[in-house]
Design a protein that fits this description.
alpha+beta, 7 strands
Length: 145
């Protein structure tokens, strides 16, 4: 089941982030997203949150800020379902383009984005923190018109 993200979901999102992401968001980061008016959805399986997506939507662009699916549920189509939903929502709002950043090393995510029509449009050097060094982000975009 897909539903809008609620502030009460934040503790679960933090737990998912810490089990999946190399540099996980903190609870404060999620709370800042709420304060900034960002939009998000969660996907549930057996009444448990197994993934989420957080985006910033303006009148002209949709910026995908975070997409995360629990490790046991990865590669089962849940991330694709979340992305597809967001892209359709953005289209309905007459938003013309969607952007996202992804770690250069995240081959499974890059493959998913390319399957959904995202094209490489740039990179951000040393964008992601990491040990022993930072990692570049690849910037992808997809036209929604």
């Amino acid at each position: 089941m897909l539903r809008p993200l609620q502030k009460t979901d934040v503790p679960v999102l933090v737990t998912i982030e810490h089990t999946v992401q190399v540099s996980p968001w903190t609870e404060a980061t999620f709370n800042t997203c709420f304060q900034s008016g960002y939009t998000g959805w969660v996907i549930e399986l057996d009444q448990q949150i197994i993934g989420f997506i957080i985006v910033s939507m303006t009148s002209v662009e949709c910026h995908i800020l975070n997409l995360c699916v629990t490790k046991p549920q990865q590669r089962r189509g849940f991330g694709k379902q979340l992305l597809h939903y967001v892209l359709m929502e953005a289209k309905q709002r007459n938003i013309g383009i969607s952007y996202l950043e992804v770690r250069r090393s995240n081959r499974p995510a890059i493959s998913l984005y390319q399957q959904l029509g995202f094209k490489l449009v740039g990179e951000r050097k040393n964008y992601y923190p990491g040990e022993p060094q930072h990692e570049d982000a690849l910037v992808y975009a997809r036209s929604l018109v």
